[in-house]
Design a protein that fits this description.
binds NADP nicotinamide-adenine-dinucleotide phosphate; about 300 residues; alpha/beta; 9 helices; about 15% strand; 13 strands
Length: about 300
């Protein structure tokens, strides 16, 4: 039985991680920005939980959340972080403060968690940290520059962390890189591209990515891609950059920026929007959005 800090436990992949860990008997510290939503999640889980609302960019709040786990369970020997928001828009159109915040959440937030949790892992005699990054940590996608910069930075930071702890017995850091996942993140995202974004196919379930995170908590690995098209996309980006660059713009217009028209909006970048949080976003494997009332799946809208 592990004591695990789950950051991003209120929605999507993090919520599914919390459900899977709790079902197998692990003791959890649930972290995200919205405290009320975390209490609702805690009530739905079968096992012991501590709620510790924190924004990962606030180092003191992250430290308090980790300390709450140690106080409740005597030790903390696992952590999974999924915290992130997204925003669409070209690098020129994205407001500077939005771009900076996305990067701060991914890079600063992950560093804050590492700073607080690694000493606790050492006290516990070992521990495993799993960081959920993205396929977009290894490829470039136009209109997603803030998110790509955040995820490339996070990947660099975590790869460095991995080299820094590699000689310490029982201490491991893993990266999970999903492709598109059926979660609320797409409609929670900010947009400065004139439209809301959509999940590009192939879309996998949050349960599948969460199962990979739970597996990596037990069996660490440097990098674990989850998504049927991930390796093909990375191979194209690295091996055929001229072809990739020509195709990726029109592809983003067709498969990503196909949501409803929207005025500029920062979405949930600076503040949580718990009204739209949940396990899934309603996306089919083929990238269609299922209407909540009728159940009909549509490509546009
Ligand atoms: N869905 C995809 O297609 C996809 C694809 C590749 C990678 N990913 C990655 O997977 C991870 C999880 O995404 P998801 O799809 O599960 O998104 P999600 O459903 O929107 O969940 C994001 C979680 O992060 C929390 N969060 C956001 N900003 C935070 C902050 N500053 N401090 C603390 N918590 C914060 C949110 O809660 P609050 O808002 O209450 O704080 C929520 O619990 C992210 O790192 C994302 O980049 C997702």
């Amino acid at each position: 039985m592990r004591s695990v800090v789950v950051v991003g436990a209120s929605s999507g992949i993090g919520l599914s991680v919390a459900q899977q860990l709790s079902a197998r008997g692990d003791r959890l510290v649930l972290v995200a920005r919205d405290e009320q939503r975390l209490h609702a999640v805690a009530e739905s889980l079968p096992g012991p939980t501590v709620v510790a609302a924190a924004d990962v960019t606030d180092a003191d709040a992250v430290e308090r959340a980790v300390a709450a786990g140690v106080a409740a369970y005597g030790r903390v020997d696992g952590a999974v972080t999924t915290a992130q928001a997204m925003a669409y828009g070209s690098v020129e159109d994205l407001p500077a403060e939005v771009l900076h915040h996305l990067v701060d959440v991914a890079v600063g937030g992950t560093a804050n968690l590492a700073r607080s949790i690694l000493p606790r892992f050492r006290e516990a005699g070992g521990g495993h940290l799993v960081v959920v990054s993205s396929l977009l940590a290894e490829i470039a996608v136009p209109s997603m520059g803030g998110y790509c910069a955040a995820k490339w930075g996070q990947l660099g930071l975590v790869r460095v962390l991995q080299t820094e702890v590699r000689r310490e017995r029982g201490l491991h850091v893993s990266l999970v890189l999903p492709g598109a996942v059926d979660t609320p993140i797409y409609r929670q995202a900010g947009t400065y591209a004139g439209r809301l974004g959509s999940a590009p196919p192939p879309v996998v379930t949050p349960e599948r990515v969460a199962a990979a995170c739970v597996h990596r908590l037990d069996r660490p690995r440097r990098i674990d891609h989850v998504g049927p098209a991930n390796l093909l996309a990375v191979a194209g980006f690295r091996g055929l950059p001229a072809v990739y660059d020509r195709l990726v713009g029109p592809m983003v217009d067709r498969v990503v920026l196909r949501g409803p028209e929207s005025a500029d909006d920062s979405g949930n970048v600076f503040e949580a929007d718990p009204s739209d949080e949940g396990l899934r976003g309603g996306w089919t494997t083929g990238g269609r959005l299922r209407d909540r009332r009728t159940g009909r799946a549509r490509w546009r809208g």
